[in-house]
Amino acid sequence: xxxxxxPDGPGGRSLSEYLFVVDALMPSPSRSVGLxxxxxxxxxxxxxxxxxxxxxxxxxxFENGTLFTVGSAFMIFACMVRLYWPDNK
Length: 89
Prior knowledge:
Elements: H1 15-25, H2 29-53, E1 58-59, E2 62-63, H3 64-84
C-alpha cells in the first residue's frame, strides 16, 4: 500500500503543519461565533457569581439568577454551534 502522507515543505515542516497554522490564523465563522458566545457566557456567569458573593442580589438592574441563567444559555449555545455548525471543509 502506498504511503499517503503529505510531502515536506520548506524548513522540513510537513504541509499539514502549515495548513494547521493557516486554519488557526483564519478561523471559520462557527469557531468565531462559538468562541465569542462561550467567552460572553463565562464572563456573565463569573460577574453574576462575583456580585452575589459580595452580598448583592442585583447587577445592572437584573437579578443574579437571571444573569447566571443567560450566561449558561450562552455557553450551551456556544457548544451547540461548535458541534453542529459545519466548517465547510
